[in-house]
Amino acid sequence: MDTKIQPLPATKHIALVAHDGKKAALRAWCNQHRAVLSQHVLYATGTTGHIIERDTALPVTKLLSGPMGGDQQLGAKIAEHDIHMLIFFWDPLASQPHDPDVKALLRLAAVWNIPVACNEATADMLLSSDLMQCEIDRHLPDYDKYLATRMDK
């Protein structure tokens, strides 16, 4: 499939998600990186968003709780190019009843080529990158061209 280039803006829209066993770690991480995060626009699934906003004073657009559809809402925002980065502190050792939604969210992040961190070390590396403060190009699948060729048949 052909690709096209679309920029990720200097001010990134960052999605924050954490499973129950990782919410405290994400809250602490957000407190540690408050200065950088305050320069961007934050989104989060319900409970995680409330915790981060309450404990860091960072403004967060809160969606539904993950198991109630919040993961799917974030996935839709990724597909609509409204989310530019995903920080997802997931618990790989805990069974999740909404595991298909989690996998779909991660799949969409890969399809639309946005940076993803699934643990604290990777999240630290993303936030410390010089690219956090500037516009960067990303390659996306050219679905418009693909659909146009399919309509001709």
TrEMBL record:
Gene3D superfamilies: Methylglyoxal synthase-like domain
Enzyme type, top EC level: lyase
Catalysed conversion reaction: dihydroxyacetone phosphate = methylglyoxal + phosphate
Keyword match Lyase: yes
Domain MGS-like: residue ranges: 6-153
Residues reported to bind substrate: 19, 23, 45-48, 65-66, 98
Listed GO CC annotations: cytosol
The keyword Phosphoprotein is assigned to this record: no
Keyword annotations of the record: Lyase
Catalytic residues identified in the record: 71 (proton donor/acceptor)
Top-rank taxon: Bacteria
Family matches, as InterPro entries: Methylgl_synth (IPR004363), Methylglyoxal_synth_AS (IPR018148), MGS-like_dom (IPR011607), MGS-like_dom_sf (IPR036914)
GO BP term (any one): methylglyoxal biosynthetic process
EC numbers on record: 4.2.3.3
Coiled-coil positions: none
CDD domains in the record: MGS
PANTHER family xrefs: METHYLGLYOXAL SYNTHASE
Its biological purpose: Catalyzes the formation of methylglyoxal from dihydroxyacetone phosphate.
Family membership noted in the UniProt record: Belongs to the methylglyoxal synthase family.
HAMAP family: Methylglyoxal_synth
Protein's name in the database: Methylglyoxal synthase
Gene designation per UniProt: mgsA
